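The authors assume throughout that readers already know how a fold can be written as discrete tokens. The format is easy to grasp once an entry is in front of the reader. For illustration, here is how one protein appears when written out as sequence plus structure tokens:
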Amino acid sequence: MGRYAIVAVGVAVVLGIGFWWTGSTGDAVAPAADVTAQAAAPMVDVALPEALSANAEIGKLAYDAKCAACHGANAAGQDGVAPPLVHKIYEPSHHGDAAFLLAAKNGVRAHHWRFGNMPPVEGVTDGDVKMIVAYVRELQRANGIN
């Protein structure tokens, strides 16, 4: 076997391990532009609260702009795209508010769901995330997740 063939085999092995490690579908959720075209079904039914606090109203606007393309309307998730945030997994005792900030700012490696890793959310500020979390927490409480 020639020198170039050995290098080619080595590269193929490394790439194969990389695809296996990320679940062979890539390591990130599809970009928002691609996700909206898919129109995936919501994963959970979300009961809406009668009213939102002022912070949650602001959070809903930020959520709709930065999160809904992947996590769906009212944080219901999208089948095959991204998980619902109105879910027991994201209750405050398991994923505190700081976890949402870290995920938005740094991205997060997949660990509960098989959607792949979540990339960082571009252009989101700490203040945006604080309001988004207020919105998500009010949705969660309206759905019995405390």
